[in-house]
Amino acid sequence: GRATGRLESASSRIRQSFVGNHTETVQKLAAEDATPVSLDDLYRLGENSSLGRRSENAQFLHHELPIRMAQRVQELQSLPYGLSEKEPIQQVANLYSEYIRKMINFGSPSPDQDEEFTKMLEGLFLDQGRVIERMAQGVIELRQEIIAHPTVTWDKQIQNDVTQLLDRFFSARIGLRLLVEQHFRAKTSPDGYSGAIQSNCSPELVAKAAITDATYLCDYHMGRAPEVALYGGNDGQGFTYLPAHMRYILLELIKNAMRSTVERHGALSASELPMVQIMIAHGDEDVTFKICDEGGGIPRSEVDNVWTYLHSSAKRPPIAEDLKQENRHNKNVGALAGYGMGLPLSRLYAQYFGGNLDIKSMEGFGTDCYLH
Length: 372
Description:
- By secondary structure, the protein is of the alpha+beta class.
- The chain has helices at residues 2-31, 39-46, 51-77, 87-106, 114-127, 131-148, 156-185, 203-222, 243-264, 300-303, 319-328, 342-352, and strands at 193-194, 197-201, 228-231, 239-241, 276-282, 287-293, 357-362, 366-371.
């Protein structure tokens, strides 16, 4: 035991000598400018291309990803209200910091290292999966601390600051994830896809899949689900987009519409529930979805709150339990209503490539959501 103890303390000493340099490395990287990347650039990154082209992409990512991750680390280390000290937030900062180290240690990837490099990116993508939950947990800890505090209150100012910093962080994370995902999915892109991007993404088909998922979830959690009427352009014209993003947003909006409909009309049987209606309009410039429900709407004083994180209208179990449950049980059955991350994240996904998400409410009747 003593020998291992000595070894461990030696290795921790070596690690500490790296840490100083690593902190400087992160600072230097964070000061560099990230390269702006458009949907077209991402499409080219994900095309199943020659080894030479993949090698160029890998070198670009080897340069670009550490800069973007270092900027996230710096951001996480300088959050207001003591958020940076919260354990879950430090875990996220450490995760990114560790991957910067891995990438630097990997060195510039040569063509014959493509498989290894791709594996490392896949690891980063999977490890990033719990980042949203950890950030949420950090904010929850802060909020509980403030609520318990004798003189400080969780007011609009704190709420707005937290919303802004999470918007900025999650928005940057979308770009980071896409760069990573495009590279490792490129090799297995099915026809008509470049990584996660589909060249002819049909809004009608994505909406149908989201309706199926939402109906299943609503049935499972509430015992019944309203019908959904879908009015779309039958010409089925598509456009270049990420079906996964579109589906995430639509699923969130349809789940909310279904849940409020069932809650509002509790006494009615499934066939008597008012329908949720979805219209899809193909304009010259953009495609718009309109999702209408008769779930009673949102009071005007509350409408702005739907864009704040961790503001959920669902009756939910204690938060820590809620987060654990979502990961542990029912891998195949998602939550119908989580802890209020879905809407603000959906708006970020919509805005990332120049769209938007807007909610108009008629209190006492229902809600209309517009997704551009």
